[in-house]
Task: inverse folding
């Protein structure tokens, strides 16, 4: 049986279960049922049924227990601080620019996309999905979370707008679908995972259960291997509403992008090393794309509350609306790694006419925030939203070029002349450019 892995797009591990022994898969309803108090849940103004509130409360409790288990697994080797219960290993946090296309279709001109041609500063966290910090060569889900700073508009979730920030987060994984359909599947699965029963929800004898589609999605998710986080397509998996249009989103390497493998893949951190080598002298680029839901599409083809269904591109192709530029830079320093550990992402951190759709997204608003608070409190680390590219170190002044690899030309610029150049007055000239040689005329 393939070893268990964990998923980066949500706050809980996912499991690949091909076969399992009855003793490992059996769990009684009494063992997996927990008393919850949905009335105590602050729904933050969202319309959530009592059953959904109970499921979310259960998921929050399970997520905290999973976080404790992850800490026990990771702390002996990687330091006595609480990491994420998923996304535990960051392969790097990098500076980027998020530039809205100038020809964006009118129906998409809402929220952060309301001003064609506008450019924003951003941070991107690339990650592996397992709750354990493991070698990069292991099959695993891969995550890309983009935090666009100083977006224009009113925050849709005021509790996430630290110090009045208007940032917007886009959370993605390299799979277009999730392994749970909705919040009820998610909460049930989390109860098994909180007890480290990694296969219990997918199949079992009592109560009888078998989830073949979900098991397939889990297997697809954690089987992937990549050579470079910059050379992979990422997906939102779940739908959002932009203006009046339900959409999913994705990032794909820009046409013509080439990222040759330049480092060995035996090192356990080779994805970080490869990305560092790529950005040492070169840049990277992604197209940010939207996939609109077809008007009148059926719930079977394009559901709004079933995370296991892929919206087919043959029905609705992805449309580029922005471009993500990652300039040459250094990102492996200690201060930046600490910043990366403390960074929080939430799909409800957004502005204007932007709304995450479906029960899983409603749950993520509450679960992600609760688990982020839990992690920061245990680590004694303040939660703060970044407003620029600066990382303040020891009171040192910082400018916006911090961390970037900027190569300045020689000044004054060299004088270049070809062999046929002759000044009219007959004066002497010297070519200073390589290829022309230092030739006197």
Result:
């Amino acid at each position: 049986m393939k070893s268990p892995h964990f998923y980066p797009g949500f706050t809980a591990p996912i499991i690949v279960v091909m076969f399992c022994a009855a003793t490992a898969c059996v769990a009684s309803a009494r063992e997996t049922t927990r008393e919850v108090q949905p009335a105590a849940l602050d729904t933050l103004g969202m319309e959530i049924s009592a059953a959904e509130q109970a499921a979310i409360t259960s998921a929050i409790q399970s997520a905290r227990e999973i976080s404790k288990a992850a800490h026990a697994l990771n702390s002996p080797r990687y330091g006595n601080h609480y990491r994420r219960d998923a996304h535990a290993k960051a392969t790097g946090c990098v500076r980027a620019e998020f530039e809205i296309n100038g020809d964006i279709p009118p129906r998409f001109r809402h929220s952060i996309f309301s001003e064609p041609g506008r450019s924003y500063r951003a941070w991107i966290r690339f990650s592996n999905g397992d709750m354990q910090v493991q070698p990069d060569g292991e099959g695993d889900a891969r995550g890309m979370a983009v935090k666009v700073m100083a977006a224009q508009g009113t925050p849709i979730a005021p509790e996430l707008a630290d110090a009045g920030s208007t940032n917007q987060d886009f959370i993605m994984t390299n799979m277009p679908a999730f392994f749970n359909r909705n919040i009820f599947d998610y909460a049930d699965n989390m109860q098994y995972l909180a007890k480290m029963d990694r296969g219990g929800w997918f199949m079992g004898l009592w109560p009888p259960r078998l989830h073949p589609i979900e098991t397939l999605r889990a297997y697809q998710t954690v089987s992937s291997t990549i050579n470079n986080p910059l050379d992979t397509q990422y997906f939102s998996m779940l739908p959002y509403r932009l203006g009046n249009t339900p959409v999913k989103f994705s990032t794909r390497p820009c046409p013509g992008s080439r990222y040759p493998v330049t480092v060995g893949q035996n090192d356990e951190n080779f994805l970080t090393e490869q990305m560092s080598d790529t950005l040492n002298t070169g840049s990277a680029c992604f197209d940010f794309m939207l996939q609109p839901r077809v008007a009148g599409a059926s719930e079977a083809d394009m559901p709004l509350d079933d995370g296991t269904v892929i919206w087919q591109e043959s029905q609705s192709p992805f449309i580029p609306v922005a471009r993500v530029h990652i300039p040459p830079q250094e990102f492996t320093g200690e201060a930046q790694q600490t910043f990366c550990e403390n960074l929080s992402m939430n799909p409800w951190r957004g502005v204007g006419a932007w709304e995450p759709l479906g029960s899983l997204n409603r749950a993520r608003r509450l679960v992600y925030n609760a688990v982020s608070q839990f992690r920061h409190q245990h680590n004694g680390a303040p939660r703060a939203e970044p407003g620029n590219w600066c990382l303040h170190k020891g009171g040192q002044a910082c400018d916006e070029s911090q961390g970037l690899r900027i190569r300045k030309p020689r000044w004054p610029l060299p004088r270049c002349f070809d062999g046929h150049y002759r000044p009219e007055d007959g004066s002497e000239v010297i070519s200073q450019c390589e290829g022309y040689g230092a030739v006197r005329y």
The chain is about 25% helix and 15% strand. Residues 2 and 16 are 7 Å apart (CA to CA). Helices lie at 22-25, 29-32, 50-78, 183-194, 212-222, 270-281, 334-342, 359-379. Confidence is low (pLDDT under 50) at residues 1-39, 437-441.
